[in-house]
Amino acid sequence: LDPWIQYEFDEVKKLDVMTVWNSNGAAESAIGWGVKDVEIATSVDGETWDVLADVSQFSRAPGRPTYREFDTIDFEGVAAKYVRLNIQSNWGGILMSYGLSEVQFSMIPVRVRTPEPAFGSMDLAPDTVATWRAGRDADHHLIYVSTDMSAVADGTAPSVTSNTNRLDMTSLDLQLGQTYYWHVDEVNETEAVTLWAGDVWNFSTVPYLTIDDFEGYSNISPDRPFQTWLDGFGYSADEFFPAGYGGNGTGAGIGHDIWSLSSPHYNGNIMETVNTAPGSDQSMPFYYTNSGGVASQTERPFKAPQDWTIGGAKTLSIAFNGQAGNTGTMFVIINNEKVTYQRDIGNISRGAWQAWNVDLSTVNTALSDITKLTLGVEGAGASGMILFDDIRVFAKAGEILTPVDPGTNGLVGAWSFDEGSGSTAIDGSGHGRNGTLVDATWDTGIQGSALSFNGASSYVNIDDYKGINAIDAVQQAFTISNWIKTTSGEGEMVTWGTSAARQRLTWRINADTLRTEHADGNLRGNTPVNDDEWHHVALVVTEGANLTVPATQIYLDGVPDGTFSGSANPYELTADVDVRIGMGGPTGGRFFTGLIDDVLIFDRALSDAELLWLAGRTEAIDKPF
Known about the structure:
The chain is mainly β. It has three helices and 46 strands. It has four domains: 4-107, Jelly Rolls (Sandwich); 113-206, Immunoglobulins (Immunoglobulin-like, Sandwich); 211-398, Galactose-binding domain-like (Jelly Rolls); 411-622, Jelly Rolls (Sandwich), CATH 2.60.120.200.
């Protein structure tokens, strides 16, 4: 058989040179294994071969360690995936054995490489400029971009041509929240190989355009929020704003008062850092007092006009959080087009993070040229404080959430605390799981009566009921719904299980917000609930859940309010102590201070709409994205 050596590359290459060091063993001068006469052939498919001209022999190695000579074979840019050495003889002519010390190939880089955005890049703006390192000898570039990976790979996706190594993606009308695949073909019609196909890469676009996330503001000029969001008080001149600003003539004030000795925020932060939207570190306080028929408002002029049509934008979404006692009706002005809040005006007084979604198709202004955004509250004598956060534009249409009565489907425990006297809390679910009061007293509830807990010794023991636990190590779904009114920042609401990690349910207030946890993970609320107002709170755990959203979710006043941190260990609640209301379960302690009313336990995960109903909401709300 004729001996041969075949080299296979991962793809077709444009070959430059092959460097060969012949066999150089100690006995080479005597035996001569080194290849002498040789035919070099190339192929792109391993079937059809072309013989390289003017190459027929390799030089002999001396068999010494000082050997540094080599043969260089010029492939002159031939395209090949395979190179085959058909060996015809060796230098010794004694044995039918052949050898080479080393073979190296160098190629001409004709394919595109080093893409920007890099492979797998995330959260890119739809107007990203793509660049790449062009292949040698390319005359122009064909760029394929699509959400269909197969179409990009086989070249059936739409393509654009560029004579440079860059492409402004704005021309492609990329959509928000999508994964795109792309590759670049290098083209030169004058070459033997006219097209060199590139690899398929991918990137994803941002799910939304951020108009303002309020994270960049501080107490120090030029980053004070009222220097961007102009209010009724204005600001004094300084090195950054030599002209100062005298105010907009309304009763709006941006940020907490950190200068007055009587202010609860004295020497603190202008921005709100405790009560923020999920995933946020800061929100913007908007104080307002309307007088003389003038609505309070704050305006943000944009130094450079914003384009809200990029990425197929459809909805402006504003996160807001009210507080008890707020009055008036919110509005937003986009350029000069006013949109009034279209949902229940009472939402302005609810202390939970809510969404306000504005359908941009109804806004009669040039959405590609937004120069100013205004937030305000109208209504004679209206006053209060609203927190604003995360103003975003989404490519999706906003949805509404309509309250739905959950009925008794899956209801396994219901303690209304409407008895008003005695030492027993009757279970209204029909399962007979009555509770025994320990040092708890009767008080006025959100409806009827409620129980008051002293924070030291009072609780309700649900006799012989062990809660909803794991079966064969899989946690079963459940929902806990209850009302609270407290000024305390700590205390257990409902507990059961063992003292071991993951086997104990903890549903409590911690550091002023809602919280559930086990092992070294926790899901905590974003909004303080210890304001001495009634709040509906709920915990939803799906089957097999861990602590991450949405497998587990916390609700406040009918809307999601949870942020996860730590380790995402799954629940594995295990029956042990009875269900307890108002104190820690197997570990004791953590007694609740304040009022608890209408405790419900379901053996299923309730929907957002059902929790909205349980929170006493009767009108639809904008669903958060």
